[in-house]
Amino acid sequence: MGYITSELLEETGYVVLDSYDQPIDPKEWLDIEYVDWKSSGDTRFAPLASAKGEIECNGFWNHKPPRTDKDGVWIDSQTAIAPTLTARAKEPGSNVGRCRVIELQPNTYADALYNLHQDDNNRLNPDGTGWVVRSFFNLTDDKDSFFVLRHNRTDPSGETRIALPAGAQLVIDTQRLWHAAAHFGDEPRYCLITSWESGPELDAYLEKYHARKHVDSVEVPQDVLDAGQAEQSRRIAAREAALRARGQQEKLAMSEA
After folding, report:
1. 33 contacts 186 by C-beta, under 8 angstroms
2. Chain centroid to CA 253: how far?
3. Does residue 123 fall inside a structural domain?
4. Which H helix or E strand runs over 205?
5. Mapped to the 3 state alphabet, what secondary structure does 206-243 carry?
6. DSSP letter string over 105-132?
7. C-alpha to C-alpha distance for 226 and 231, rounded to whole angstroms
8. Over the stretch 32-60, which tens digit does the pLDDT of each residue have?
9. What domain range includes position 193?
């Protein structure tokens, strides 16, 4: 039967929407409660919706009964502080799974390449239902930072780098694309990440905000690109050697991210 997917995401695996141009009080992401939860980099997360409405970030399949990343339960103590962020996550009207704000500390392009990962959004997702994708709504004005997208973790050909100013809105099939953020500067980056189920509601939302399947990549000097690729290769090789020494294999898909 197959899954219900969004046609706009089929070609590239991502779309960039119109930038959100309304002010949001930073207290909405600074005053909510964060938990230590490591993803691609030095991170913490503040959940707005979780498996059971608790302030935790575990995959829904790790709860009893296990289920896919849908039907998230809103956390009243968090949504009361962040009403605008909550409204943004609910706006499409599609099923919401996990919803949380990420706090990412500054890193480098090489860090982002090493941290590239795929998500496991659709574990236990029943055939014939909507494919789960993720939205990224950048909250802080990170003009020099960018999202890195690749179809192959170690192949730079076709890499897309998407700018992350305040208000940037992306929807990505993060189970298909390898992704991570290169975040420069002295302050953390904050971004709202929401799991959305594909279907007519999401399609209408993408159309409403003029989803673009292609954007120009952020320009990065070639020597930085080359050095980042070399460092990614070095770190991956070192990690694989360390894991082999322990009789383990690298877990490529970071299903808890």
Report:
1. no
2. 13
3. yes
4. helix 200-208
5. HHHCCCECCCCCCCCCHHHHHHHHHHHHHHHHHHHHHH
6. ----HHHHHHT-BB--TTTTPPTTSBPE
7. 9
8. 999 987 666 789 999 999 999 999 999 99
9. 7-245
- Over residues 114-126, the pLDDT tens digits come to 999 999 999 999 9
Residue 19: what residue type? S
How buried is residue 249: exposed, middle or buried, by Cβ count under 10 Å (0-12/13-18/19+)?
Answer: exposed
84 in a structural domain: yes
User: Which has the closest alpha carbon to 29: 171, 166, 184, 186?
Assistant: 166
Beta carbons of 107 and 183 less than 8 angstroms apart: yes
Residue the block writes with tokens 């299903």: 255
Query: 93-103: buried (b, 16+ CB within 10 Å) or exposed (e) per residue?
Result: ebbbbbbbbbb
- The owner of tokens 């694989």 is 240
Q: Does any domain span residue 235?
A: yes
221: amino acid identity, one letter: P
| pLDDT tens-place string over residues 165-188 | 999 999 999 999 999 999 998 999
Contact of 98 with 75, CB cutoff 8 Å: no
